[in-house]
Write a structure and sequence with these properties.
about 170 residues; globular; single chain; alpha+beta; four-stranded antiparallel beta sheet
């Protein structure tokens, strides 16, 4: 009887703590808006100030939206931060987005029987090109490489997919 009771409690609590897809989308959008707001604020001062904010504040903003049952962040095939490499489950979907065989604003996939994955492209905006474009100021380039010696996040044009917001969460 105790085992049965524990099983029922565990099953119900798993459903209670599972996240709704809309909640995940809302958190990703809020995180994206906060990151964009911080970067715009930094760019008003200088691109190097924006780089500083991105280097220090972006990971803190991402942490703010993580929960016990929600992991959230940014990822790119051409990452600047080595911590933003794609996870195995993401790779085929990232390629499909880049090849334009996925045209949705975001996708939600089953990672396994217990977890879902969320991917939403980050589109390169004019604001992004100072640090991620084809022609980067030499002083800014030196600053980027001093913080990110293995940087791959350059050479983008406006409208390119520069990376993705991602989330993993319980079903």
């Amino acid at each position: 009887m105790k085992f049965f009771t524990l099983f029922i409690i565990f099953t119900l609590s798993a459903k209670i703590f599972a996240l709704d897809d809309k909640v995940v989308l809302k958190n990703v959008r809020k995180m994206g808006k906060e990151l964009k707001r911080e970067l715009k604020s930094g760019m008003e001062k200088s691109p190097i100030e924006a780089l500083e904010l991105c280097n220090i504040k972006a990971p803190l903003i991402e942490l703010k939206y993580k929960k016990d049952n929600l992991k959230i962040g940014r990822v790119s095939l051409k990452n600047r931060n080595p911590n933003n490499k794609p996870k195995k489950w993401m790779l085929k979907y990232l390629e499909k987005f880049h090849k334009k065989s996925i045209n949705d604003n975001y996708i939600i996939v089953n990672i396994d029987e217990h977890r879902k994955g969320f991917l939403k492209p980050i589109i390169t905006l004019p604001l992004c090109l100072k640090c991620h474009g084809r022609s980067i100021d030499s002083n800014l380039s030196k600053e980027i490489f001093s913080r990110y010696p293995n940087d791959k996040a350059t050479g983008f044009s406006g409208g390119d997919i520069r990376g993705f917001f991602w989330a993993e969460y319980d079903k």
